[in-house]
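Narrative of accomplishments. A recurring question from our advisory board has been how the design workflow behaves on a single, concrete structure rather than in aggregate. To address it, we present the structure tokens for one chain from the evaluation set, followed by the sequence designed for it. No filtering or post-editing was applied between the two.
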């Protein structure tokens, strides 16, 4: 699959996005295009930055970081299993400014013993930020399990006003 990709600055550093021919987001990454490539299936190829396709995503992410957008509306097209898609849909349902533990997310999905499976599906989320895996924290409020590091996760939760109180400065 040929994808159009771009990288642009954010308060958390460079952010890269890949979209398909219709403009639906296939993958995102904090970091450069090499970081993004590592999140794509081997059958995906970055061919260009077709501004008309990537600009809507950039505008929404810029608005998010400016505090003017709480819910992303750009179309998403992540590849994954049915189980992963169930978890990713549950992530999208976590409101801006709120967090969930892995166990609570598993319980919300009707399987309270599946916190590790939820964690694994969360870790394989190819569309960070737009599918807000950063909103999932440890049951003790710790900032566990974010592919781009605890510092970026902390910044995102602080922006949303949902940083656990024990972690506030």
């Amino acid at each position: 699959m040929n994808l159009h990709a771009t990288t642009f600055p954010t308060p958390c550093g460079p952010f890269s996005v890949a979209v398909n021919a219709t403009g639906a987001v296939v993958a995102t990454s904090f970091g450069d295009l090499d970081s993004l490539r590592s999140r794509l299936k081997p059958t995906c190829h970055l061919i260009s930055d077709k501004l008309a396709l990537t600009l809507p995503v950039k505008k929404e992410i810029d608005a998010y970081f400016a505090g003017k957008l709480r819910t992303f509306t750009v179309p998403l097209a992540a590849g994954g299993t049915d189980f992963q898609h169930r978890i990713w849909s549950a992530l999208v349902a976590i409101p801006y400014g709120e967090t969930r533990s892995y166990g609570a997310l598993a319980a919300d999905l009707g399987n309270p013993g599946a916190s590790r499976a939820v964690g694994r599906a969360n870790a394989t989320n190819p569309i960070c930020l737009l599918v807000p895996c950063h909103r999932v924290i440890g049951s003790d409020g710790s900032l566990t399990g974010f592919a781009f590091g605890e510092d970026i996760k902390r910044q995102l939760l602080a922006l949303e006003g949902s940083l656990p109180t024990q972690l506030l400065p």
